[in-house]
Design brief:
364 residues, alpha+beta, Rossmann fold, Dna Ligase, domain 1, D-amino Acid Aminotransferase, Chain A, domain 1, nine-stranded antiparallel beta sheet, 12 helices, 18 strands, 29% strand
């Protein structure tokens, strides 16, 4: 069985690593010559719109998936007429546009911050009377890891924030006074079976995820599962999906969803009975889904921009290092480490030490 993946970054790499024990083979389409997953399968190097390469991928893969949501939706549409594509092009199209996404959430009963579309500077000035301050101006498409976003503290910020977006279609969202950020990851297979991972509590800095901790028996688990079930069902979704949420006064408000495996679920590799990567493959291949139960207390720390000495990381007990094979660069995710312990106190101590190592590299 051969799985095609659009994109060959670290998420594709981890999908392939999970698929090797299942006897799966992989073929990647990615424009970068040094894409970090290309050692784990065949690499079709070229543009995502290259029809000849897409035809090769469709002919040789039994099923095609993707590792990031900015794959052009028309590419997924083209492939779906020639082979199986999971998740569906519809899920991709909804996730790619923040306005469509927010409208979709509201249409299926998932709460969101107040928001409004913005197509001009005049629009932005006009809608702020209803949205209020503070708020966040975001590009409708192509935004990730904090890119394409500006915080609006007052009317004095509007002109410069709009100029920063260079005139692209945008959306403005009311700032959410959250107590914490969480995400829920679930997998749905071709038979419609769904499994849910425990909530991850997330810490972001500069719009980039730094730390995720598995929270078993979380008071918000049931509401998060209700939301993600509505989303999976409405999209007739197949694969792993992540829903990012704000907790506000003991309720949840949706931020965005990712139609793919997700950074906040990296702890599942060592910390769950079945990782998100294996369950994604099981789901898109129509196989029974594996248990999502947490094995121990678990957390994940991202390494952004560069790495400390590997020995410093591996000297910590219960720590597992995952290198992506990517060259260091400011703002780039180059590795992560997961922590597994038996007690919350141990987990907090080790996660803090890992985060300190990560911050030393990032600050340099």
């Amino acid at each position: 069985m051969k799985v095609g993946i659009l994109g060959a970054g670290q998420l594709a790499r981890m999908i392939a690593l999970a698929g090797y024990p299942l006897g799966l083979e992989f073929i990647f389409l990615d424009p970068a010559a040094d894409a970090c997953a290309n050692r784990l399968g065949e690499h079709l190097q070229g543009d995502y719109h290259d029809l000849a390469l897409l035809a090769q991928l469709a002919e040789r893969a039994d099923v095609v998936t993707y590792e990031f949501e900015n794959v052009p939706a028309n590419v997924a549409d083209f492939l779906s007429t020639h082979t199986q594509v999971h998740p569906s092009p519809k899920a991709l199209a909804v996730a790619q546009d923040r306005l469509i996404e927010k409208n979709f959430f509201n249409g299926i009963g998932i709460a969101t911050p107040a928001y409004a579309p913005v197509d001009s500077l005049a629009d932005l000035h006009a809608v702020m009377a209803d949205i209020g301050y503070p708020a966040v101006l975001k590009s409708r498409t192509q935004g990730y890891d904090g890119k394409g976003q500006s915080v609006l503290q007052s009317a004095a910020d509007l002109d410069s924030a709009w100029q920063k977006l260079a005139g692209v279609a945008a959306i403005v969202e009311a700032f959410v006074p959250f107590t914490r950020e969480v995400s829920i990851i679930a997998a749905r297979n071709t038979a419609g079976d769904i499994v849910y991972y425990p909530l991850s509590e997330n810490l972001h800095q500069g719009g980039i995820l730094r730390v995720s901790e598995c929270t078993t028996d979380d008071a918000m688990q049931e509401q998060a599962q209700t939301y993600i079930t509505r989303l999976l069902t409405a999209l007739d979704y197949v694969g792993v999906l992540a829903l990012e949420l704000f907790e506000v006064e003991r309720t949840l408000i949706a931020n965005e969803f990712a139609p793919r495996v997700h950074n906040s679920g990296h702890w599942t590799i060592e910390g769950a009975q079945t990782s998100q990567f294996e369950n994604h493959l099981r789901a898109i291949l129509g196989l029974p889904l594996g248990s999502t139960a947490a094995v121990d207390k678990a957390a994940m720390v991202n390494f952004i921009g560069g790495l400390p000495d590997n020995a410093d990381i591996l000297a910590l007990p219960g720590v597992h290092l995952h290198l992506y094979g990517k060259e260091p660069r400011t703002g780039r995710k180059v590795a992560h480490a997961t922590v597994r312990t038996e007690t919350s106190a141990e987990l907090a101590e080790l996660t803090e030490k890992l985060a300190s190592l990560a911050n030393l590299v990032d600050d340099s």
